[in-house]
Design a protein that fits this description.
Structural class: alpha/beta
CATH superfamily: Phosphoenolpyruvate-binding domains
CATH topology: TIM Barrel
Number of helices: 13
Number of strands: 8
Number of domains: 1
Radius of gyration: 18 Å
Strand content: 15-25%
Shape: globular
Helix content: 40-55%
């Protein structure tokens, strides 16, 4: 896997499809990567991942020819640089509601002078085949991506300022939390009119700032729709859903 392949693809204007892993099973993440996804997201916020499983999954995804991405827990900027040191090449940070949140996230992910990331990417360099520390240092700020999640009313009000924050590379929509917030906790309709308007607003803010718009999609049909609407980083479903749907489909056949 070429170093910083995801960043190079997105900066070149490519549209990228990824998938999502809740289950703390590196072999599942690897299997999904081998299906042809450009990237696989390890979800530490709501998933079952501990540090050892993340380290193993990052390596497995990398060796399967995809880019490892980690979603860290809310406000856990200490995990940002650790995940990058393990070999993740993009970080999704949830609940980025203010410019201060965005700045703190960027500072943890980027080396000086852009940020405050401490140096120690030895596992990342090994996975990438690198040996010269100065080369990693020279390329990492452009090559490792920061995706700020916009998923609350507060974040929506600050979205243009968040998008314009130096060190933020992309805006990533969490549609279920966004729909929950916009409905006042009454619904999770990701296609409700107010949610669709918010999705377009977030996309426009990203594009205006020269950043990548991204979104979580339940299935491939929704991902294709979002690509047509200008999004360039889409996740399609998750490992638990894929496993459940596959098992259910097989049982439906034998019971028919």
């Amino acid at each position: 896997m070429a170093a910083f392949a995801l960043a190079r693809a997105l900066r070149a204007g490519d549209t990228v499809y990824s998938s999502w892993c809740f289950l703390a099973a590196p072999i599942v993440a690897e299997t999904i990567a081998r299906a042809g996804f450009t990237a696989v997201v390890i979800d530490q916020q709501h998933g079952l991942w501990d540090t050892a499983a993340v380290v193993a999954a990052v390596s497995a995804i990398h060796h399967a020819g995809a880019t490892p991405v980690v979603r860290v827990p809310v406000g856990d900027n200490a995990s940002v640089s650790r995940a990058l040191d393990f070999g993740a090449e993009a970080i999704i940070a949830p609940m980025i509601n203010t410019v201060a949140d965005a700045r703190a996230f960027a500072a943890a992910a980027k080396f000086p002078p852009q940020g405050e990331r401490s140096y120690g990417p030895f596992r990342a360099m090994a996975l990438q085949g690198g040996t010269a520390s100065i080369e990693y240092l020279r390329e990492a700020n452009e090559g490792t991506l920061t995706l700020a999640m916009i998923e609350t009313q507060t974040a929506l009000g600050n979205v243009e300022a968040i998008a314009a924050t130096p060190g933020i590379d992309a805006l990533f929509i969490g549609p279920y939390d966004l729909s929950t917030a916009l409905s006042g906790g009454k619904a999770q309709d990701v296609s409700a009119p107010e949610v669709e308007r918010a999705i377009d607003k977030i996309r426009d803010a990203a594009l205006k700032a020269g950043k990548v718009p991204g979104i979580y999609c339940t299935d491939a049909e929704r991902a294709r729709e979002m690509a047509k609407r200008g999004f360039r980083f889409m996740t399609i479903g998750n490992d638990l859903g894929l496993l459940r749907d596959g098992a259910t489909a097989q049982m439906k056949i034998v019971r028919s």
